[in-house]
Amino acid sequence: MPLSRGSAVVGYVVLLGLFLAANMDVTASIPHGVQVDWEAILSQDPDTFVDKIKPWLYPSIKTSRNLKDYADVSVAFSTTGSVVAALTCVDT
Known about the structure:
Blueprint: H1 6-21, E1 25-26, H2 36-42, H3 46-57, E2 61-62, H4 73-76, H5 80-88
Antiparallel strand pairs: 1-2
Helix pairs in contact: 2-3
């Protein structure tokens, strides 16, 4: 069970979202027996934590999308209100 707490799952999803926003795909899963949240909690500083996850995370990061291939978002959502409406739309 790599992520044992709800806040850890949210943190990992946000991390993956940041990678995607930076045009990077993470192709690896968390290794069996590793609990990333506890690695972070028990590390004395951020560099120690990065050193622990770097061996399995960094090799799996692939830049595979060209951002120029995507349409400009401002064409579809020209106002802040239209963005909020799109994000809060619920299909019933």
